[in-house]
């Protein structure tokens, strides 16, 4: 709707590709579609996901940046804030409609996502059973998360 | 009558006048401020001594009333705080219209409060649209020279098209009004009404005002919107959530809709809200078992021929064998008027045949179906009565022609129809109420009242189904029966309301507010 929306997206994409955030590769899924981005995020070294490569799809709505982007994990991941239903949808405060502000940038979303891998937020979970394990039995959480990472996010 | 029948049923314009000097009879809580200060002087109060015990005091407000009251409060507080009205409005909305708390907190910590709502810098001069050199909009990345821009005092500057689009989205799509924040990153400043005036298109201003008025009503415990579709009125009533086990606050909107101020469902007197919630939940859970009941055809208990119900009346006469029976219990009709027969009461089987678990569960299902059957039947009958009335209304003009009666003179049919709707609505809920009542003397009195009202209703309903050419002769009789129905309803509702207020009902479940 806004004349400048294409300009804004092109600018963000250019900046992100010339200076990508730590441990991420960002490409367009299809060169003709500015609104669907593909991200490969390395599991942060200090996290239980280290060694894994996680594929994410980031979709920019038509009304971006007035509406927040939508982020989905395509690689299965054991995490309290990422749904384990085949959709891999993620809950992140800044992506909620009432929290999102139009000047917010995609790079900030990606960095927040990476931080969420380092430090899950069990109080705002989508997978409450995983959140329970995370809070009450961290050892077992760590074990499963590492197993899943090895099984689904390594060498693919 | 139009299709949204639920919302025009049973309103009687002179039955529910309110009396403004008596209270609800409930303990008043002195800590609740601001509720006596309802300054709608424009509203004329109608006083009628002797408000019945099941009636509550309430007032109906139009959007204009609400707007003017809002403006009046803003002006008042604005003088006290020494802040302009648009700032005061933001503060009041922030404090959810609790003006005492606002004034107190403002006096204590003015700076802190202004900061909380993003008004911490001094406000001077009206907001302006400006062009800036070397400007690039952080939202759309446009940097053309001469681009119009806007910022509030916080300095978060964006191009005017982006600012406008942001605001219109908030208003149109997210329904926000009172608490729209500056589009700047991490900025909590609230967009004030002058800035909005400057940036919001005229067609959206109306919607914005509407939303502001909405939040005003939503924020006040004593105000609620009428839930009827497209109704714009709000109702003011002092009954509190904690009173709802003692009173059923039915209110009557000017649009004709009767609803419960406690839970906003359609009028459910005499059953209290908590009981209604339980009952509706049960009906939902057991809907499969109870489905067969809503069928419109049954077999004559004597000759087994199929009988269709097409009016509200439960007194059925088989076309084939002329057997007269009751649609609800399938018992012989002639016994229904007698004192020993009870169609409405559920007779518990004696203990012997309910020894094992299976028998017990069958019995509890039977008991439920007894009440559900009657509950659903009155609901359906009210609809059928209404259909008949609509047909009759068309014939009323014929009646005028053939009998020489004037339009006013045929209004007795409308009154009868209204009484039927209202009484059936009450009867319907008496069955949900009775389902949860423990067996004792008081319950028996209740059931007697229920039976009397039911018989009165069936008699009127039966008369209502007579051919139009007979109606003229029945006028006096029908007026009598209408009056009698209304009287029985008042008796039943008064008795239940008195006992509810006194906490005298014994329920077989625990009700919690
Ligand atoms: Zn812009
Ligand atoms: Zn700002
Ligand atoms: Zn209404
Ligand atoms: Zn209610
Ligand atoms: Zn028959
Ligand atoms: Zn019967």
UniProtKB/TrEMBL annotation, chain A:
<keyword id="KW-0833">Ubl conjugation pathway</keyword>
<dbReference type="InterPro" id="IPR050113">
    <property type="entry name" value="Ub_conjugating_enzyme"/>
</dbReference>
<protein>
    <recommendedName>
        <fullName>E2 ubiquitin-conjugating enzyme</fullName>
        <ecNumber>2.3.2.23</ecNumber>
    </recommendedName>
</protein>
<dbReference type="InterPro" id="IPR016135">
    <property type="entry name" value="UBQ-conjugating_enzyme/RWD"/>
</dbReference>
<dbReference type="GO" id="GO:0061631">
    <property type="term" value="F:ubiquitin conjugating enzyme activity"/>
</dbReference>
<feature type="region of interest" description="Disordered">
    <location>
        <begin position="1"/>
        <end position="24"/>
    </location>
</feature>
<dbReference type="InterPro" id="IPR000608">
    <property type="entry name" value="UBC"/>
</dbReference>
<keyword id="KW-0547">Nucleotide-binding</keyword>
<dbReference type="Pfam" id="PF00179">
    <property type="entry name" value="UQ_con"/>
</dbReference>
<keyword id="KW-0067">ATP-binding</keyword>
<feature type="domain" description="UBC core">
    <location>
        <begin position="4"/>
        <end position="154"/>
    </location>
</feature>
<dbReference type="GO" id="GO:0005524">
    <property type="term" value="F:ATP binding"/>
</dbReference>
<keyword id="KW-0808">Transferase</keyword>
Automatic annotation (TrEMBL), chain B:
<dbReference type="Pfam" id="PF22191">
    <property type="entry name" value="IBR_1"/>
</dbReference>
<keyword id="KW-0808">Transferase</keyword>
<dbReference type="GO" id="GO:0061630">
    <property type="term" value="F:ubiquitin protein ligase activity"/>
</dbReference>
<keyword id="KW-0863">Zinc-finger</keyword>
<dbReference type="Pfam" id="PF01485">
    <property type="entry name" value="IBR"/>
</dbReference>
<keyword id="KW-0479">Metal-binding</keyword>
<dbReference type="Pfam" id="PF00097">
    <property type="entry name" value="zf-C3HC4"/>
</dbReference>
<feature type="domain" description="RING-type">
    <location>
        <begin position="137"/>
        <end position="183"/>
    </location>
</feature>
<dbReference type="GO" id="GO:0008270">
    <property type="term" value="F:zinc ion binding"/>
</dbReference>
<keyword id="KW-0862">Zinc</keyword>
<dbReference type="InterPro" id="IPR031127">
    <property type="entry name" value="E3_UB_ligase_RBR"/>
</dbReference>
<dbReference type="Pfam" id="PF21235">
    <property type="entry name" value="UBA_ARI1"/>
</dbReference>
<feature type="domain" description="RING-type">
    <location>
        <begin position="133"/>
        <end position="347"/>
    </location>
</feature>
<dbReference type="InterPro" id="IPR044066">
    <property type="entry name" value="TRIAD_supradom"/>
</dbReference>
<dbReference type="InterPro" id="IPR002867">
    <property type="entry name" value="IBR_dom"/>
</dbReference>
<dbReference type="Pfam" id="PF19422">
    <property type="entry name" value="Ariadne"/>
</dbReference>
<dbReference type="InterPro" id="IPR013083">
    <property type="entry name" value="Znf_RING/FYVE/PHD"/>
</dbReference>
<dbReference type="InterPro" id="IPR048962">
    <property type="entry name" value="ARIH1-like_UBL"/>
</dbReference>
<dbReference type="InterPro" id="IPR018957">
    <property type="entry name" value="Znf_C3HC4_RING-type"/>
</dbReference>
<keyword id="KW-0833">Ubl conjugation pathway</keyword>
<feature type="compositionally biased region" description="Acidic residues">
    <location>
        <begin position="16"/>
        <end position="36"/>
    </location>
</feature>
<keyword id="KW-0677">Repeat</keyword>
């Amino acid at each position: 709707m806004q004349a400048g929306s294409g300009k804004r997206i092109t600018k963000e994409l250019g900046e992100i590709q010339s200076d990508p955030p730590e441990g991420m590769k960002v490409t367009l899924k299809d060169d003709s579609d500015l609104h669907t981005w593909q991200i490969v995020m390395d599991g942060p070294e200090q996290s239980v996901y280290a060694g894994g490569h996680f594929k994410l799809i980031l979709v920019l709505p038509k009304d971006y940046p007035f509406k927040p982007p939508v982020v989905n994990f395509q690689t299965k991941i054991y995490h309290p804030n990422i749904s384990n239903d085949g959709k891999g949808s993620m809950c992140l405060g800044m992506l909620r409609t009432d929290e999102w502000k139009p000047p917010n940038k995609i790079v900030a979303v990606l960095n927040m996502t990476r931080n969420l891998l380092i430090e899950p937020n069990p109080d705002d979970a989508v997978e409450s059973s995983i959140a329970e394990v995370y809070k009450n039995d961290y050892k077992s959480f760590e074990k499963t998360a590492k197993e899943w990472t090895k099984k689904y996010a390594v060498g693919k | 009558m139009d299709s949204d029948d639920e919302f025009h049923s049973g309103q009687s314009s002179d039955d529910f006048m309110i009396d403004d000097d008596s209270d609800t009879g409930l303990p008043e809580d002195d800590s609740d401020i601001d509720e006596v200060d309802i300054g709608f002087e424009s509203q004329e109060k109608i006083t009628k001594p002797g408000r019945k015990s099941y009636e509550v005091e309430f007032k109906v407000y139009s959007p204009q009333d609400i707007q003017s009251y809002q403006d009046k409060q803003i002006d008042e507080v604005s003088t006290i705080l020494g802040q302009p009205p648009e700032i005061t409005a933001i503060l009041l909305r922030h404090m959810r219209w609790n003006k005492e708390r606002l004034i107190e907190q403002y006096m204590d910590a003015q700076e802190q409060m202004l900061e909380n709502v993003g008004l911490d810098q001094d406000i001077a001069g009206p907001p302006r649209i400006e062009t800036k050199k070397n400007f690039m909009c952080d939202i759309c990345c446009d940097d053309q020279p001469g681009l119009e821009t806007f910022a509030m005092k916080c300095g978060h500057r964006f191009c005017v098209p982006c600012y406008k689009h942001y605001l219109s989205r908030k208003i149109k799509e997210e329904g926000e009004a009172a608490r729209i924040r500056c589009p700047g990153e991490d900025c909590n400043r609230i967009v004030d009404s002058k800035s909005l005036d400057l940036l919001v298109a005229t067609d959206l201003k109306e919607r914005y005002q509407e939303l502001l008025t909405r939040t005003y009503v939503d924020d006040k415990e004593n105000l609620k919107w009428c839930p009827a579709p497209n109704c714009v009125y709000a109702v003011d009533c002092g009954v509190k959530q904690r009173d709802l086990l003692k009173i059923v606050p039915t209110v009557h909107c000017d649009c004709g809709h009767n609803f419960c101020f406690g839970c906003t469902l359609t009028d459910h007197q005499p059953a209290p809200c908590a009981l209604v919630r339980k009952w509706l939940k049960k009906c939902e859970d057991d809907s499969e078992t109870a489905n067969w009941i809503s069928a419109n055809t049954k077999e004559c208990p004597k000759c087994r021929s199929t009988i269709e119900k097409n009016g509200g009346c439960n007194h059925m006469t088989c076309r084939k064998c002329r057997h007269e029976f009751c649609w609800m219990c399938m018992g012989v009709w002639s016994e229904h008027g007698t004192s020993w027969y009870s169609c409405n009461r559920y007779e518990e089987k004696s203990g012997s045949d309910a020894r094992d678990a299976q028998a017990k569960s069958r019995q509890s299902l039977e008991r439920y179906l007894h009440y559900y059957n009657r509950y659903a039947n009155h609901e359906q009958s009210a609809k059928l009565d209404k259909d008949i009335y609509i047909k009759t209304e068309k014939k009323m003009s014929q009646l005028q022609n053939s009998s020489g009666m004037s339009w006013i003179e045929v209004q007795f049919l409308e009154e009868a129809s209204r009484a039927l709707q209202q009484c059936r609505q009450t009867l319907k809920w008496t069955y949900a109420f009775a389902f949860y009542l423990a067996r004792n003397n008081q319950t028996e009195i209740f059931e007697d009242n229920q039976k009397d009202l039911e018989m009165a209703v069936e008699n009127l309903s039966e008369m209502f189904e007579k051919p139009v050419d007979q109606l003229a002769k029945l006028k006096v009789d029908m007026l009598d029966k209408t009056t009698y129905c209304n009287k029985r309803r008042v008796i039943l509702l008064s008795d239940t309301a008195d006992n509810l207020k006194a906490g005298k009902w014994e329920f077989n479940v625990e009700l919690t507010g």
